[in-house]
Amino acid sequence: MKNKKENKLYWRRLDNSAKIFPIAAGKKYSTVFRxxxxxxxxxxxxxxxxxxxxxxxxxxxxxxxxxxxxFWYYLEYNPKKIIIEEEKDYPCKYIDPRKNNxxxxxxxxxxxxxxxxxxxxxxxxxxxVMFFREIIYNYLxxxxxxxxxxxxxxxxxxxxxxxxxxxxxxxxxxxxxxSSKKAYELKGKKIGLGGVSAIHEIIDMKALKEESKKxxxxxxxxxxxxxxYCMYKENYEKYKYKGNKPIKVCIPVNLxxxxxxxxxxxxxxxxxxxxxxxxxNLTDFxxxxxxxxxxxxxxxxxxxxxxxxxxxVKLGNNFAIKIVPLIIKKxxxxxxxxxxxxxxTITYSNIGRIGIIGKxxxxxxxxxxxxxxxxxxxxxxxSCTFENKMVFTFTSILKDNSIEKRFYKFLTDRGISxxxxxxxxxxxxSKEIK
Amino acid sequence: MIYPKKLSSKKGDLIFKILLFSxxxxxxxxxxxxxxxxxxxxxxxxxNAGIIYVWITVYYSIKKNxxxxxxxxxxxxxxxxxxxxxxxxLGFEKWSLNISIPIxxxxxxxxxxxxxxxxxxxxxxxxxxxxxxxxxxxxxVILIGxxxxxxxxLSIIASSISVVNLILTLSLSAKxxxxxxxRKFHM
Lengths: 434, 187
Fold this sequence. Notes:
The complex is a heterodimer of chains A (about 425) and B (about 190). In chain A, the strands form three sheets. In chain A, strands 10-9-11-13-14-8-15 form a seven-stranded mixed sheet. In chain A, strands 5-6-7-2-12 form a five-stranded mixed sheet, with helices on one face. In chain A, strands 1-4-3 form a three-stranded antiparallel sheet. In chain A, a hairpin with a 2-residue loop joins strand 13 and strand 14 (about 390-395). The longest helix of chain A is centred in the N-terminal third of the chain and has 19 residues, at about 125-145. The termini of chain A are far apart. Chain A is about 35% helix and about 25% strand. Chain A has helices at about 5-10, 20-25, 45-60, 125-145, 165-170, 205-215, 220-235, 285-300, 300-315, 320, 325-340, 400-415, 425-434, and strands at about 10-15, 30-40, 65-70, 75, 85, 105-110, 115-120, 195-205, 245-255, 270-275, 345-355, 365-370, 380-385, 390-395, 420. Chain A folds into two domains: about 5-165, Chloramphenicol Acetyltransferase (2-Layer Sandwich), CATH 3.30.559; about 170-434, Nonribosomal peptide synthetase, condensation domain (Chloramphenicol Acetyltransferase, 2-Layer Sandwich), CATH 3.30.559. Chain A has about 425 residues and is of the alpha+beta class. Chain A contains 13 helices and 15 strands. By secondary structure, chain B is an all-alpha fold. Chain B is built from seven helices and no strands. Chain B has helices at about 15-35, 45-60, 70-90, 95-120, 125-135, 140-145, 150-185. In chain B, helix 4 runs antiparallel to helix 5 (about 125-135) and helix 5 (about 125-135) crosses helix 7. Chain B is flat and about 55 Å long. The termini of chain B are far apart. The interface of A and B includes residues 13, 72, 74, 111 and 195 of A.
């Protein structure tokens, strides 16, 4: 454990990915993602508080607050207490540091559910899961002390391992592979008043696996193809789009699979699939899935991923950008951010299986992951798997939920069992319209 | 049910927006009244400067996550600018440069000195503001050099207190100052 003096002095630079988030973040671009767990019992807030504090001792890199430097933001030790509240806001909303004792993550609960909303500057989904899992383990160990007595978990402090793995692994000579073509933007009226709809499709994993096998596709490939098909049918075709912009799907990639890294900071990149609907005549599912498989194979190569990562690192490391004072960076980024975001139609992040050991599993129903939608990327999708349940989530600011409905129908028509949960935002709106 | 029935986005900023709109409206009304009644005396400019000052104070108090030293710095700079503006609008007799700004600098430095002594352990959080106040406190010296200030006694006292303050700060917390500079100016 670090002593108080060391903690007081602890600070760290933001990693290469994290630099942009606080500059661009605000109420419209929260850059927040949420992880939730649905337990089989009601949450006890006092125990949750204890569990979070224990987890913070083990993961000190989360006990930080954001500060403004002259050129960049940075993170420093946060001596304040953590705040835990009952859930009352829309998911993935901007985390106002003043109302959260300056923490960059927010813990809320509702009945059987525990949520952690994480500002992306702090970490990525992969490390976020590690921290969240620690909270859940701690919580269950306190609640079910006797039942989990025999379960042995190696508990060690994950030191502030916050090296910037981007800097360590990028290739100075790699060429930029990013596309200069703007993406098709989903059309439709927005919910308004800052409302965010969350629709969770709880999918039977076994059936989904079998179905994707039929197309010799991975689950991510299969679901991406379904998503593109639904967007094509319920938005592109429905709104009679006459332009030539492709549907571009951004898929985040966990770089820890490609490079050795133990960092708790961000270490992800992304690939962007570019579905040229008109040019390649991608008008039925079979054609779309063939396209998705080919594009995945083309883009999910180490050298391609290095190219994307390196281009971003070079941008953050550019001397001309470095020396611009933060106040001017903020102004420039905020003015141009809408334009920057116009290169993606939708993001789909699959963080995969959330592994829980031994008897701990018995107390958990399933996990959820949500990503904040934005004014340009009006819908964002995410999924995670626990046991045989994959939860595919749509977070949206569009009033029209026909893409979500089509997605559900597509899977159920193929014999895959899907249950629906939602935050009821669109139900309320449809009632209002009636 | 995995979500509460009523979800809401916080509307706290609505009050802020209403107040901001009211201030702009008030500023325009005052300006129009000024133009219609006493166009030779530009008093509305002074009241509007006062409104802007109030908003700088409110904005930094509510929106910025600044510690007490940050507020001392903002107030020192904002009041000085307000004084200078009022002086300029009233014929620029330089009372702001001769008297007001040096007094503001003295008060800011004494406050920082007390803060440094009382909250020595928290000094790393104050260091950067302290340095900016010291730099700001050097303005009277420049004004003396340029012969803009006529009454130099207060200006010399103000800058001297600032130098003493800096020396004391460095001797008490040199490491903290160095650390604060590194983290604030890292590239």
